[in-house]
Amino acid sequence: MRSLVKKLIPGRLFRVIEPYGHLCEAIALNIWYGFPARDLKVIGVTGTNGKTTTTLMIYHMLHQAGYRVGLMTTVAYGADEDVRPQLQHMTNVPVREFMQRLKWMRQRRIEWLVLETTSHALAQNRVWGVPYSVAVMTNVTHEHLDYHRTFENYRDVKVRLFRLAARNHEGLRSGVINADDPSWHFFADVIPNVVTYGIDHGELRATNIHSSMSGSDFEMKYQNLALHLKVSLPGKFNIENTLAAAATGVIIGLSDQQIVDGVAALKNVEGRMTTIDEGQAFNVIVDFAHTPDAFDKLFKDLRPIVKGKLIVMFGSPGRRDEAKRAAQGRLAGKYADEVIVTEEDDRDVEGEKIMNQIAEGAEQAGKVKGRDLFLVHDRTEAINFAIKQAHKDDTVLLLGKGHEKTIERADGEHPWNEVAIVKEILQNGI
Fold it and tell me: Where are the domains of the chain?
């Protein structure tokens, strides 16, 4: 029905009325399912990058502390020990399924729910009725402008999460905000209780940082509190995610040891800096990074610790934000020794067109087709090609698909498992 209505109504008008249709649906289904989120204490995590890792870290922190805790993220959902993979290509599922999951969690007597919350879910009122107690912002950078049209619209939609938490007088009405992000004050201005964090700015800070390909350890300082934290995920951005989780722990009253043990409990996140070791002499990493900001942070973190060449493979989805394609190409061209452009959910858009848009950016950064820039449309062939290019101490970085279990092409969805494909290629001795 939604697709039929979308065809009949001009695009600009449809975007205006669409949220109200979702709102009516959310209200009706909340009534039907008996407002299943009513008794939960909810921590909402929003941002362009880092949402999933931060959400999982908070979940592990609460779980380790002995709470009954539920989880909904891009990669998984569940309650307590019963965590299941999220198969849809979306973070926040449609309202009916969302209500069903909430009802199931309520039946499990969940105390806390850690809910990764996207701009689409907020704009479309899919999370109406959720009593957010704490709102967490990781960062806000260029993404989803195909839908929100301007960065300001995108940012302001994310601020709604903090407004929702501020209106919940039975909750903590608290915000955790990345003070290193230029937009931080838009979030801080709408909620009464705030803890800011960051590496360069903020009340809760990371100092004495020691990083490697296997993770980081650092000192976290907040007021009179000083904790030594270890995280098994590499990259400066994962230090920021850890600070966000730790700040959440401080707000909800966890002990020092519960915070230390909780952030250390997350050993890996599927498709997030997943290192694949089949005995090869070079590094292979699968990561979900798919925005210019994620590329910039990832490349800046990895470039200094890569011993050999940095070989990067990625694509860009069809029917999504076209403006980011050249930007991603420029960043890859700037930091990587070799760039391989491939498919990434082309949908019904011509793959060659997408690849050439990315390649234009890489060429602006000095890459040359056939020398250090290669276009290989079939993603399996591109992975195979990237691995063949690698020698001792090189690092192959495969970006964009991460945890996803399907790849979308013109004829529909096809099964996909990037980690399994890489392992098979490596095991076959390529």
Answer: 2-264, 274-427
Cα separation, 86 vs 73, whole angstroms = 8
CA–CA gap between residue 118 and residue 157 (Å, rounded): 9
User: What are 239's two structure tokens?
Assistant: 């230090």
Please tell me the distance from the alpha carbon of residue 257 to that of residue 265, in angstroms, as a whole number: 12
* CATH number assigned to the domain with residue range 2-264, chosen from the 4 options 3.40.50.360, 3.40.1190.10, 3.30.365.10, 3.40.50.300: 3.40.1190.10
Strand-pair partners of 351: none
Q: Return the axis-axis angle of helices 418-427 and 379-389, rounded to nearest 10°.
A: 50
Which strand (E) or helix (H) includes residue 180? Answer: none
Find, among 135, 120, 164, the residue nearest to 22 by Cα.
Answer: 120
Nearest of 162, 172, 120 to residue 138 by alpha carbon: 162
What is the spatial distance between Cα 147 and Cα 127, in angstroms, rounded to a whole number? 18
- Whether the Cβ atoms of residue 181 and residue 187 lie closer than 8 Å to each other: no
Of 392, 379, 388, give the one whose Cα is nearest residue 421.
Answer: 379
Query: What CATH code is assigned to 274-427?
Result: 3.90.190.20
How large is the C-alpha radius of gyration of the chain? 21
The two structure tokens encoding residue 413? 């969805």
Best CA proximity match to 287, nearest among 53, 10, 17, 3: 53
Single pTM value for the model: 0.78
Per-residue pLDDT of the chain (430 residues; tens, 9 = 90+): 445 444 444 555 545 556 566 788 888 888 989 898 988 999 999 998 888 999 999 999 999 999 999 999 988 889 888 888 777 666 778 889 899 999 999 999 999 999 999 888 898 888 989 999 999 999 988 665 666 578 888 899 999 999 999 999 988 999 999 999 999 999 999 999 999 999 999 999 999 998 877 788 999 999 999 999 999 888 888 999 999 999 999 999 999 999 999 999 888 787 788 889 899 999 999 998 888 888 988 898 888 888 899 999 999 988 887 888 999 999 999 999 999 999 998 898 999 999 999 999 999 999 999 999 999 999 999 999 999 999 999 999 999 888 888 888 988 889 999 999 999 999 987 5
